[in-house]
Design a protein that fits this description.
Blueprint (H helix, E strand, L loop, with lengths): L2 H7 L12 H11 L4 H33 L3 E3 L1 E3 L2 E3 L2 H14 L2 E10 L2 E10 L4 E9 L8 H21 L3 E3 L14 H13 L4 H8 L12 H16 L1
Parallel strand pairs: 1-7
Antiparallel strand pairs: 2-3, 4-5, 5-6
Helix pairs in contact: 2-3, 3-4, 6-8
């Protein structure tokens, strides 16, 4: 018997590479043992679920660590309703910290029925991501043309989706002695206001002017009930 025939009759055991995921080890062993495809597929699904859970835990841990380092962003830009922190200032404050913790973000834009939806996608290096979306109509204040109106809305929605996604706060510029600002409305509260605005056929930009804010996301949480009351009063007048 040749050396080759002896090798074929007594094949060397398959080496199983060690991994940090026990399910992946089980998959390798199942493949080596010739297990049925449905068994291997089920093990792969288990590995995917475990990886997703690990990625979410890592995301949550990174967000908590980053938020502990991020300071309130100073509002230095002048707007129609007072000062605000522009997107560049927010990015300068958060980008280096997010990067250190394996986090990054990007924005996705959609447009339908005259409204713009901006979605901030906050991602972690292990793959978990979460999305925060806000919708508003074009900002036609200040004699803007149609393109400028869309651009203005897009800019402030990018700003406020990022603020909402990270749970940031902004603070007044008081010559270096800034104090903390109040909590802003939540995403759920913004969605409730958007629904009322649509129901009452209200212009978002004009309503924000009444509330003296740059956007719905800039409404202080303590003024949410006041905002709802204003819209409900308008709805009641329309129904009378």
């Amino acid at each position: 018997m040749s050396a080759l025939e002896k090798h074929q009759d007594n094949p060397a055991p398959v080496a199983i590479a060690q991994t940090s995921n026990p399910v992946m080890d089980m998959i390798r062993q199942a493949v080596a043992a010739g297990q049925p495809l449905d068994v291997i597929r089920e093990l792969k699904n288990m590995a995917t679920e475990l990886a997703a859970e690990e990625a979410q835990r890592a995301f949550d841990k990174a967000i908590a660590a980053a938020k502990a380092e991020i300071k309130p962003v100073v509002r230095t830009e002048k707007g129609h309703n007072g000062k605000y922190a522009d997107l560049a200032a927010i990015a300068d404050a958060v980008d280096p910290i997010l990067s250190r913790h394996g986090l990054n973000y990007r924005h996705r834009t959609a447009q339908a029925n005259g409204a713009i939806t901006i979605t901030c996608i906050l991602s972690h290096e292990l793959g978990h991501r979460e999305e925060t979306s806000i919708t508003a109509g074009a900002d036609t204040s200040g004699n803007k043309n149609s393109i400028q109106a869309l651009g203005s809305t897009q800019t402030y929605l990018m700003r406020y989706t990022l603020v909402a996604a990270l749970g940031l706060s902004t603070t007044k510029d008081d010559d270096g002695n800034a104090g903390g600002a109040g909590e802003l409305v939540s995403i759920e509260q913004i969605e409730q206001l958007q629904a009322l605005l649509t129901e009452t056929n209200s212009d978002v930009a004009k309503f924000c002017q009444v509330m003296r804010v740059e956007s719905l996301a800039g409404i202080p949480a303590k003024r949410f009930s006041d905002a709802v009351a204003k819209l409900n009063a308008k709805k009641a007048r329309a129904a009378a």
